[in-house]
Amino acid sequence: MNFKLLGLLFSFFLVSCAQLSERAVVEVDKQKEQESKVEQLNLPKQELTAPMLFDFLMGETAFQRGNRDVASGSYLRLAKTTRDPRIAQRATEVALLSRKPIQALSAAKIWVELDSDSILAHQTIAALLVSSNRLDEAQVYLDRLLDLEGDAAKFFMQLNNLLARSANKIETLQLVQQFAKPYSQVPEAHFAIAQAASLAGQFETARQEMELALTLRPDWEMAAIYNGRLLRHHVSSESAIEFYESYLKVNPKANKARIAFAQMLVAEKNFTMARGQFKQLLAQNSGDANVAIAVGLLSIELRDFYAAEESFKKALELGYKDLNTIRFYLASIYAQTNRLDKAMESFRSVVRGKQFLTAQIRYAYLLSKQGKLSKAREHLQKLPVKNDQERSLLIVTEAEFLREAGAHQKVFDLLSNGLKKLPSHPELLYDRAMAAGQIGKNDILEKDLRKLIQLRPGHAHAHNALGYSFAESGNRLPEALKLIEKAIKLSPGDPYIIDSLGWVHYRMGNLNKGISYLKQAFQIKSDPEIAAHLGEVLWMQGTKEDAKEIWRSTIRDYPDNEVLLNIMKKFMP
What we know:
Layout: H1 3-16, H2 28-40, H3 50-64, H4 68-82, H5 85-97, H6 101-114, H7 119-131, H8 135-149, H9 152-162, H10 169-180, H11 187-199, H12 203-216, H13 221-234, H14 237-250, H15 255-267, H16 271-284, H17 289-301, H18 305-317, H19 323-336, H20 340-348, H21 356-369, H22 373-382, H23 388-404, H24 408-421, H25 426-438, H26 442-455, H27 460-473, H28 477-490, H29 495-507, H30 511-524, H31 528-541, H32 544-555, H33 562-571
């Protein structure tokens, strides 16, 4: 059997495994094109031996089964033995997917040697050398890639992607500048220098080079957007606004640049100017569904929900294909504007896509708010899940519905059942610990939180919750203080942890220190439970009127908060 037969077998095997392999999605037309190219390649003429066939089958089978060490080793041996560029390419791909950079580089060298005109081969080996911080070696292949491309503009637009993994950004910038020297009249060369300079922290150089790119190609929208961002972040917002206005005056139909400008204005909270850009977008692109979507999203950021609704409906009229995304955003708008029946209908109608699970959870939440807790739980329980993270999310959501209904024992039971299937899942451990505290099972609370801290030493709220539980019981106050101080180090500025720190100091008799921390926490967030703690400590200090004022002002915003109501009943019967 000659090697051409092996090539045909190889192609057939890849196609047959298309559904299994991570990258073997082969279209019929592309397959035919590849077959025609095979005839033009200078392939070695040798017999298909049993060891070759074994390595091939072993490599592909091991790859499909996730045994990446065996797969990459088998393919590299096969590439060395057969000296076939197709096998060398596959060996490179398998090694890359297996995260074996040394083997990938070995295979790529064989690939480039055997197929010296392959643009993809040169891109691959250059990127591999760059990621290994071997820029000098990479330059040889980049030089050849520039020749193969035959298009300097295209080369420079790819260059920074190929150099992205370089650890030394200054050397990378110097390399890009060296390549760009003979191409001072190519705007893409200046664009590439600007990108590299920005990554190297040389923002003045980046700005100057981007201006040169725009001088050579004044209508270039991508460069305009990049320049606007450079000006905003490294000169001033006013400079960016001035630039965008000047650019859009000359290029009024530059939709992407106008959207970028509008987004910047929203981020700067310049809502009046942002609205003006929206109106121009709509006026100039009344038949473009994508523009309608963009305006709808920006209107949501402005909290102009009715304008957003109009834009999304306009996108529907214009035939926007992703109906599930539009349904999700419309449902969110209906919920924000208190049209709950329409919101539920729209959330329920999201049947696929990345918003599917979120939409269905929101539908269930609205059911629970209508007093239909059983139906809400049933809806969550029937939803399909792709992984343990989604399974955990649904359990935690259902527990939250039960918690809001005051069914704390059911919350604990639900989470306990969830932990039987996912015994080390952080969210379930934390939530069951909180549920255990609600029903007096402090031994389980401590057990779950200690396990969580062991699994996630950086989990600030696990440290805080355990410390707070000790502070509440009053039995292990020094340990409580240690745990809460650890939580503060992990998450400084968190109002709930600062509240716990104030509370434990109060419990330890450090009244003034306790008040100081509690005031700080309440200033960051006027939470009802923080208000309850602060008021109690103020009351015990003797400033009862201040305590009453804090409680009364907070209860107006949180009339149903049990903790605050109980503390007020205790001190103000």
